[in-house]
Design goal:
Elements (H helix, E strand, L loop, with lengths): L6 H11 L7 E2 L2 E2 L3 E5 L3 H13 L3 E5 L2 H11 L3 E5 L5 H9 L6 E5 L4 H6 L4 E4 L4 H25 L1
Parallel strand pairs: 3-4, 3-5, 5-6, 6-7
Antiparallel strand pairs: 1-2
């Protein structure tokens, strides 16, 4: 990190050096991770969706809080990305964060980090953000969850 690497990059490098995998598999097969993307701006949603799909994630888009809640219940995503300034966005973040099995990444052009974390978000990114930073944060939230589950399973 002293050489300018991000914490996310340092975490992945450490995992590689320790021989840990951040890939999620069940019974020897890869599992496609589903991400719910609640974003009111169609262009921002399409751009984020493109980068997530490039990384191999399945993405469900929701243009409103109500659509996001329905999709969350129907599809049980592994991660939710919530734009906080969409109508009802902060409350949506709060409700989705109640399900502790799926982390919430809150994003906003406004400096709402404290509000997002208080509402239960696992992480916050302020727009505009670098797409690499966005994808790296998503990977870390999903990868950390997978490693934690795998570690707990091996200890039990």
């Amino acid at each position: 990190m002293e050489e300018g690497s991000s914490a996310a990059d340092a975490h992945r490098l450490l995992a590689v050096q320790l021989g840990l995998s951040t890939d999620v598999s069940v019974a020897g097969r890869d599992v496609v991770m589903l991400i719910l993307l609640a974003e009111r701006d169609r262009f921002a949603a399409e751009l984020c969706e493109y980068f997530l799909r490039t990384e191999g994630y399945e993405v469900r888009l929701a243009a409103s809080s109500a659509d996001a809640e329905r999709s969350f219940v129907e599809h049980r995503p592994n991660l939710s990305v919530v734009e906080l300034v969409m109508p009802g966005g902060l409350e949506l973040c709060r409700r989705l964060a109640l399900d502790e099995t799926a982390p919430v990444l809150a994003v906003s052009a406004l400096a709402l980090q404290d509000e997002a974390l208080t509402a239960g978000a696992s992480a916050f990114l302020q727009k505009p953000f670098e797409q690499l930073q966005f994808v790296s944060t998503v990977r870390d939230l999903l990868g950390s969850s997978a490693l934690t589950r795998r570690h707990r399973a091996s200890v039990s």
